[in-house]
Design brief:
about 400 residues, 14 strands, four-stranded antiparallel sheet, Jelly Rolls, alpha+beta
Length: about 400
C-alpha cells in the first residue's frame, strides 16, 4: 500500500478568490504549527494523560496525536476503504455497485452512505441538522467529466470494516477517552469521511452539539469529542479547519462571524495539519468546517466520537444520526458493546499490545468475543447512535 504524500497541487481553483485562498491557507498553516497542541500520546507515571496535553486540548479545543498508527494498521485501513468504495452504489440511489453486486449497505435500515454533488455545499444556510449550518460555503463548478454525485461519508462504518473496528479499540485512544470523559464514557457515532481530490465538497462552519447549550451545567466538554484518524494525512487544502478556543464560548453566532470577516474565511481558524497515522481529537463544541477540496490530495478520515455518560443518560435526542429516542441505561449499554467487540478484535490482530479495559464491561468482557459469527450482530448498530 502507498500512503500518498500531500502536494497541495491544485486541480480546481477559486477563480478570483484563488489568490486570497492561497494566502489564507498559508497563514492558517503557520498559525496552526505554533499552537503547541501536537505530539505523541503521553501518560505520566501513574497512567494519567500528560497534563500538558490536557491543558493544550482545553486551551485549543483540539490536539494532534502524532504517529499513533503504524504501517500495518494503515495498510489494513486502506484495504478496507478501497473495498468499501468499490462496494458503494454505482450511483446515488442505486442498489448495486459498479460490478453489479448488491451495494454496500443496501440491506440496512439505518443511514450509511452520504452523497454530495462535487464541490457543492447542500446544507449551509438551511435548517437541516437542527439548523447548525447557518451559512453557506463557496461552491465551485466541477470539472466537466465529474460524476453527478460522489460519496462523502460512510456512517456506521464499524459494520463494514474490521480495520475501523480494530482502530475503535485502540488502547491508548480509549485511555485518552477515559481521561477526558471519565472511565464510564459512552459512544457517540462512527464514520469515514472522504474528500475526493478536486471534487470533495465543503462542510460549512458549525458546532456539533445541539442538546445542552442552555444547560446551566454547560462546560467545555458537555457535547463530547471526536477522534479523527488520518489515513493519508491532511493539510490546509483538504483538511478540517477549527477556530481555537471556540469550544469554551457557548453557542456562537457563526453567521455574524462570517459577516464580520467579509467571507467564509474566518481569520481565527487554523487547519488540521497531519501526517498519515496521526489522530486528532476535536471538541464537538469547537467551531469547525472545511473548504472544497480543490487539491490533488485525497483525504480519508476515520471518525469516532465519545461522550460523558452524564451528558447522554436520560436525555431524549436524535434527529441527525438516529431517530429521536430516550437514552436509557439499556440503550447506552447496548450501543457500548461495540467498544467491547472492538477491544477483542484488536487483541486478535495485535496480540503484543496490552488491551484496554473498558470499565462498564470489566466484569463480563469475556462475553464479547469478535468472530465472523458475531459480526452479523453489528448490522444497523448505528441506529442506536447517541447524538446530542
Amino acid at each position: 500500500m502507498t500512503h500518498r504524500p500531500l502536494t497541495t497541487v491544485p486541480i480546481v481553483d477559486y477563480g478570483p478568490d484563488e489568490e486570497a485562498m492561497v494566502r489564507y491557507r498559508e497563514g492558517g498553516t503557520q498559525r496552526a504549527l505554533i499552537l503547541g497542541n501536537r505530539g505523541p500520546i503521553r501518560f505520566d507515571a501513574s497512567g494519567n494523560l500528560d497534563e500538558e496535553i490536557r491543558a493544550a486540548y482545553s486551551r485549543c479545543g483540539f490536539y494532534i496525536f502524532e504517529g499513533v498508527l503504524g504501517k500495518d494498521e494503515l495498510d489494513d485501513i486502506e484495504r478496507d476503504i478501497d473495498d468499501m468504495l468499490a462496494r458503494a452504489p454505482v450511483a446515488k440511489d442505486a442498489d448495486v455497485d459498479r460490478q453489479g453486486r448488491p451495494a454496500l449497505g443496501v440491506d440496512c435500515n439505518a443511514r450509511n452512505i452520504g452523497w454530495v454533488k462535487p464541490l457543492s455545499d447542500p446544507i449551509g444556510g438551511t435548517d437541516r441538522a437542527h439548523g447548525r449550518y447557518p451559512a453557506k460555503m463557496i461552491e465551485l463548478d466541477p470539472p466537466a467529466e465529474a460524476p453527478a454525485h460522489i460519496v462523502q461519508i460512510i456512517l456506521g462504518s464499524l459494520q463494514f470494516s474490521d480495520a475501523c473496528l480494530r482502530l475503535y479499540g485502540h488502547p491508548q485512544l480509549l485511555a485518552v477517552a477515559a481521561a477526558i470523559n471519565g472511565d464510564d464514557f459512552t459512544p457517540f457515532n462512527e464514520a469515514v469521511w472522504i474528500k475526493h481530490p478536486g471534487l470533495g465538497g465543503p462542510v460549512p462552519w458549525h458546532q456539533d452539539g445541539w442538546t445542552h447549550w442552555d444547560n446551566p451545567d454547560l462546560d467545555e466538554g458537555t457535547h463530547g469529542f471526536n477522534f479523527m484518524a488520518q489515513l493519508f494525512g491532511c493539510n490546509a487544502a483538504n483538511g478540517l479547519w477549527v477556530v481555537p478556543g471556540s469550544h469554551r464560548q457557548g453557542k456562537a453566532d457563526i453567521k455574524a462571524m462570517i459577516t464580520r470577516a467579509g467571507s467564509e474565511r474566518l481569520e481565527q481558524a487554523v487547519p488540521l495539519v497531519c501526517k498519515p497515522g496521526d489522530v486528532a481529537i476535536c471538541n464537538r463544541q469547537a467551531i469547525h468546517g472545511s473548504f472544497a477540496n480543490t487539491s490533488a490530495d485525497m483525504r480519508v478520515t476515520i471518525n469516532f466520537g465519545f461522550h460523558r455518560r452524564r451528558s447522554v443518560l436520560g436525555v431524549t435526542s436524535g434527529g441527525v444520526h438516529n431517530e429521536i429516542a430516550e437514552y436509557t441505561h439499556d440503550r447506552i449499554r447496548e450501543r457500548s458493546r461495540l467498544i467491547a467487540y472492538a477491544i477483542d478484535a484488536r487483541r486478535q490482530r495485535f496480540p503484543d499490545e496490552e488491551p484496554y479495559t473498558y470499565q462498564p464491561f470489566a466484569d463480563n468482557a469475556s462475553e464479547y468475543r469478535w468472530s465472523t459469527e458475531t459480526k452479523a450482530e453489528l448490522k444497523d448498530y448505528n441506529a442506536l447512535d447517541l447524538g446530542i
